[in-house]
Amino acid sequence: MPINFDSALGIHADALRIRTQRAEMLATNLVNADTPNYKAKDMDFQTALQMAASGQKSAALNTTHLKHIAGNGENPFEAATQYRTTLQDSLDGNTVDEQVEQAQFMQNAIQYQASLEFLGSRFQGLTKAIKGE
């Protein structure tokens, strides 16, 4: 009987992928902290996880004609993407607060590590089951 990794790992593999994309988004915010008019973005993790659980890959528009432009798929969880509200306005229109972004990045990194360790234990369990231990 073949092992179905999707059912064996559950939603945790998707959670790890979403955490990775959120880390990229938060890192982009930090890099653009001095860019005028840059708007800080974040991801609603629960919405993205629900999209992944339901199999929805994108919030893109449906194409009804062959000449319609399809989405490029850069952000499969575009519906979960939100703009961060500022605590203090800046003169150049930038909404990145470095302290908030660093705190969010570190929290996401800790949650990423926890998901990674959980998946590692799931793989160890599968390995033991295959070996018959």
Please describe the structure with a list of short key phrases separated by commas or semicolons.
133 residues, mainly alpha, two-stranded antiparallel ribbon, 2 strands, flat, Flagellar basal body rod protein FlgB, flagellum, bacterial flagellum, FlgB
Write the layout of secondary structure elements.
Blueprint lengths: L4 H5 L2 H20 L9 E3 L1 H9 L27 E3 L14 H34 L2
Antiparallel strand pairs: 1-2
Helix pairs in contact: 2-3, 2-4
Structure description:
- The chain is mainly alpha-helical and 133 residues long.
- The chain has one domain.
- It is 51% helix and 5% strand.
- The chain has four helices and two strands.
- It has helices at 5-9, 12-31, 45-53, 98-131, and strands spanning 41-43, 81-83.
- A two-stranded antiparallel ribbon has the order 1-2.
- The model has no long low-confidence stretch (mean pLDDT 82).
- InterPro entries: FlgB (IPR006300).
- Keywords: Bacterial flagellum, Cell projection, Cilium, Flagellum.
